[in-house]
Amino acid sequence: MKKILYLGLYIFAMGVALTSCRDTRTSGEKVEDGIEEVGDGIEEGVEEVGDEIDDATDDNE
Q1: 6, 8, 27, 55: which one has the fewest Cβ atoms less than 10 Å from its Cβ?
Q2: Which long-range contacts (C-beta less than 8 Å, at least 24 apart) are formed by 16-20?
Q3: Measured between alpha carbons, how far is 43 from 30 in angstroms, rounded to an integer?
Q4: What are phi and psi of 31, to 5 degrees?
Q5: Would you call 40 exposed, middle or buried from its count of C-beta atoms within 10 A (0-12, 13-18, 19+)?
Q6: What's the alpha-carbon Rg for the chain, to the nearest Å?
Q7: Which residues contact 33 (CB under 8 A, 6 or more apart)?
Q8: What is the pLDDT of residue 27?
Q9: Residue 61 has what pLDDT?
Q10: What is the CA angle 39-36-34, rounded to 5?
Q11: CA geometry: angle at 37 spanning 49 and 55, to 5°?
Q12: What is the torsional sign of CA 8, 9, 10, 13?
């Protein structure tokens, strides 16, 4: 009887431990993070293009 009780408690504890590790952000927060990442990527791209333009114009002078 004790083994069954211990097994039940072990399964319950594992279930609680694994459930608490899940991401609890809302979908709105996830969308917000995605938009920020896209914005950061665009900014980096613009900076790279600007650097390439500066390099190209410096070589022509």
Answers
A1: 27
A2: none
A3: 20
A4: -65, -45
A5: exposed
A6: 26
A7: 25
A8: 84
A9: 59
A10: 110
A11: 10
A12: positive
- SS3 per-residue string spanning the chain: CHHHHHHHHHHHHHHHHHHHCCCCCCHHHHHHHHHHHHHHHHHHHHHHHHHHHHHHHHHHC
Q: How far apart are alpha carbons 60 and 1 in whole angstroms? A: 86
CA–CA gap between residue 26 and residue 47 (Å, rounded): 32
Residue the block writes with tokens 């319950």: 12
Structural tokens at position 20: 């608490």
